[in-house]
Amino acid sequence: MRRAPFLCLVLLGAAFLVAGCGSKKESASEPADTAVQAACTGSQLTGALKLPPSFPQIEAEKVTYTQQRSEGPTDIVEGYFNGSVADAHDEFKKELQAAGYKILFDELEDHDSEVSWKGEGRTGQVALREECGQNDKTYVHITNRPA
């Protein structure tokens, strides 16, 4: 009966191993999903964007917003930036600060970036990803929710 505790530990370890193998995370080399591709190739939105009134409007030749939707209290605006992830990160961060938004967090990596912000009673994040399939075109995903 001394083997019972050891056997329990082995079985518990095996259960954790199997549970950890259950999900598949996409790698950067895999194709982006169709929703991202639609944001990267769609036509420019007409009408009001679901962003705070003073949210910076980056020049049209740099950014194009192609789709938007609401998920509960969160508004989402997507599109693409003509340039690299680093260029998009720097531009959004600079423009948000210039418009009086507080930067809560920002991170720039090789293939993606986030700039979290707060302003006008709202919080959100500008997420930038190298998923449009071109080095000079960056996927833009902006969330915007009540603070």
Question: What does this protein structure show overall?
Answer:
The protein has 147 residues and is of the alpha+beta class. 27% of the residues lie in helices and 38% in strands. It has helices spanning 3-20, 34-41, 85-98, and strands at residues 63-71, 74-82, 102-108, 112-119, 122-134, 137-146. A six-stranded antiparallel sheet has the order 1-2-6-5-4-3.
Summarize, please.
The chain is of the alpha+beta class and 147 residues long. The chain is built from three helices and six strands.
Indicate the topology.
Elements: H1 3-20, H2 34-41, E1 63-71, E2 74-82, H3 85-98, E3 102-108, E4 112-119, E5 122-134, E6 137-146
Antiparallel strand pairs: 1-2, 2-6, 3-4, 4-5, 5-6
Class inferred from helices and paired strands? alpha+beta
Please report the total strand number as a whole number.
6
| Main sheet properties | 6 strands, antiparallel
Q: In CATH, what is the class of the domain at 31-46 and 61-146?
A: Alpha Beta
> What string, H for helix and E for strand, traces the elements in order?
HHEEHEEEE
Mean pLDDT: 84
